[in-house]
Specification:
With 146 residues, the chain is mainly beta. The protein is built from one helix and ten strands; from the N terminus they run βαβββββββββ. The strands form two sheets. The chain has a six-stranded antiparallel beta barrel with strand order 1-2-7-6-5-8. Strands 3-10-9 form a three-stranded mixed sheet, with no helix packed on it.
């Protein structure tokens, strides 16, 4: 298991409305997320995280045909989430929409799960129990989930 520290950051506020439509459609394929809160927690990680092999990758989901006429694909990765680091972890998922601007940086990830009232700039930890590789590069010491 790897534990990656991070900080909760303010998001774009788009996920709250989008997840109300997306979650029921994603849950048809991946039922364990069905009761997740309709909002994300945006986390800036201390090291880049690249998810090559998620726990689930959806088929193209048609949740907004005006913006995504061919549908949008979502990756979901099981995690344990602690925020702040001294509280008991909760089961959550990294929510990785393929068309999100957050995909431009592997330092920013979105977490879905139970409703958590975590203020901006609070320290947190994402724990991942999967096969992964730590890249030993001094300028880009990333963690890659494989």
């Amino acid at each position: 298991m790897v534990a990656i520290p991070g900080v909760r950051r303010a998001g774009l506020s788009a996920a709250r409305g989008n997840l109300a439509v997306q979650l029921p459609l994603m849950a048809l394929e991946f039922p364990e997320i069905a009761n997740s809160h309709h909002g994300t927690i945006n986390v800036e990680l201390a090291v880049p995280l690249i998810v090559v092999a998620p726990d689930h990758r959806t088929q193209p989901i048609h949740w907004n045909d005006d913006m995504f006429p061919n549908g949008e694909i979502f990756d979901l990765l099981r995690i344990q989430f602690e925020a702040p680091p001294d509280v008991a972890p909760v089961t959550a998922w990294l929510y990785i929409p393929h068309e999100s601007p957050h995909r431009r940086t592997p330092y920013i990830h979105e977490v879905i799960g139970p409703e958590l009232n975590i203020p901006v700039d609070v320290q947190c930890i994402i724990k991942i129990n999967r096969n992964m590789v730590h890249l030993p590069y001094s300028l880009f010491p990333a963690v890659v989930v494989i």
